[in-house]
Amino acid sequence: MTTQRTVLVTGGNRGIGYAIAEQFVAEGHNVAVTARSGEGPAGTLTVRADVTDSASIDAAFTEIEAKLGPVEVVIANAGITRDMLIMRMSDDDFDDVVSTNLGGAFRVVKRASKGMLKARFGRIILISSVVGLLGSAGQVNYAASKAGLVGMARSITRELGARAITANIVAPGFIQTDMTAELPEATQAEYKKSIPAGRFAQVGEVARVVTWLAGDDASYISGAVIPVDGGLGMGH
């Protein structure tokens, strides 16, 4: 039985973030999600926040702390893409993706760490991507932001590990979402050829790894990169 925790999932209004929030609710936790628009799943507290803005993050945490108590588990999931070949990628395309995906995780974790240090307990889980370690043409900005999360989690582990705070990375591969469903059949088949499992993941397969990492059974795991990619990124 895992201890009941107060959990925050950023970008919990769709896709992987929504599934993660749903899984935490199913396991009996108190769950808040941040979203710029839309709502988190039933049973969650949705708060408006922009991860590129520290004041907005601070206000979101203050609201969550007042309603649910100090955040003990934080899942930094909010992210964007601006895919483009490097020759055509503007400075803004690069900066915006890095500021949201990497800077956003920094701002959220920095604010969460206050309460975690006081409680001498915390679970920090950063949602990266197989692309962060494998690379992907047209995704220099996205891959750089997702690779940066690895260095972040490992540095946080060295800084805060003695206070019973862990920091880990989950690196999903191709996931069955609305976005992948819209890809032409031939493109989907081509992608699946490179995945040893021969299929895309279900969002729940990622969500259950995240809830496990946040639970009591994973208390001695920190600074780890856990791939959920059907074998796509082996060795990376």
From TrEMBL:
InterPro entries: KR_dom, NAD(P)-bd_dom_sf, SDR, SDR_fam. Coiled coil: none annotated. Residues 5-178 form the Ketoreductase domain. Pfam families: adh_short_C2 (PF13561). SMART domains: PKS_KR. Belongs to the short-chain dehydrogenases/reductases (SDR) family. NCBIfam families: PRK12826.1-2. PANTHER family: 3-OXOACYL-(ACYL-CARRIER-PROTEIN) REDUCTASE (PTHR42879), 3-OXOACYL-[ACYL-CARRIER-PROTEIN] REDUCTASE FABG (PTHR42879:SF2). This is 3-oxoacyl-ACP reductase FabG. The lineage of its organism: Bacteria, Bacillati, Actinomycetota, Actinomycetes, Micrococcales.
